[in-house]
Every structure is written in C-alpha cells, then in structure tokens.
Specification:
5 helices, mainly alpha, 150 residues, single chain
Length: 150
C-alpha cells in the first residue's frame, strides 16, 4: 500500500512540472493501476466465478475514476502554482472544483457499489466500496503530506 501511495503522490505532484513528458507519466499511471488492482484483488478475495463478474465492472469503474483523478491532479497543480501569489484569484473556483470532485468520487463509488451488489454479491459490493474508500482517503492524506505548502 505504501508503494502505491508514493507512486500516486509522485504522479500527481510531478504532472504539473513534467506535463510534456506524457509517456513517462502514462507508464507511472500504468504501474499504479496494476498495483492498485493487486491490492483490490487481495482485499476482495473473490472466487473464480465472482471474479469473472467483478473485474469487467471494476475496469469500467477505473476508467471513470481515472477521469476524476485527472481533475484532482489539475486542481492540485493549480493550487500549488497559485498559492504563492498575492491573493489567489481563482480561490472560489478551486473550492467549487474540489467539492465537485469529492462528490463525483463518492457518487461513482455508490454507482458501482450497486452494480457489484447486483452482479456479484452484497459482500463483494461492500468490500469494493470499503477498499476504494480506504485507498482514496490514504492517497489524499499522502498527497497533502507531500504538497509543498511553504
């Protein structure tokens, strides 16, 4: 779990600085997705039948979650770049964007919780929701620890 958090923090903080190095960032994101999938798999402990139902749903979830993650990276980059300026001009927009990102993350987990519950089982859905919430929370905490605020 520590490795995944460090990778995500690195990707998020470095995206603004090295945006032109698209290939390297995509490679890091790929590694993150593989490691995250491994963590989810270990936590979920699905049998073969349930796994066959779960993973296609999870892949769709990850595609949507990644788009929200990209919004978070942009917001963090904007925050870091704007914070040191006298009077952040876009502060209201940044707060609105942050709140919207958080709502979208929870809405997305709830949407896929329902899909997993219907397709696999209530237990699998609950496990999915909990591990995704734990990963998201841990990553946010690590990002704030790593963020250059002064």
């Amino acid at each position: 779990m520590k490795k995944i958090i460090s990778t995500v923090a690195f990707v998020c903080l470095m995206t603004g600085i090295y945006a032109q190095q698209h290939t390297e960032i995509e490679l890091i994101r790929s590694a993150y997705k593989l490691e995250k999938k491994s963590i989810v798999s270990e936590f979920m402990q699905l049998n073969n039948e349930d796994a066959a139902k779960f993973w296609p749903i999870y892949e769709k979830y990850e595609t949507e979650r990644s788009a929200i993650g990209d919004r978070r990276v942009k917001l963090i980059t904007d925050y870091v770049n704007e914070r040191h300026k006298a009077g952040v001009k876009n502060s209201d927009e940044m707060v609105k964007e942050s709140a919207d990102i958080q709502r979208k993350e929870v809405d997305l987990r709830e949407k896929y919780y329902k899909q997993v519950k219907t397709a696999v089982s209530l237990t699998a859905a609950l496990d999915f929701f909990q591990i995704e919430d734990a990963i998201a929370t841990t990553i946010k905490m690590k990002l704030w620890e790593e963020m250059p605020l002064h």
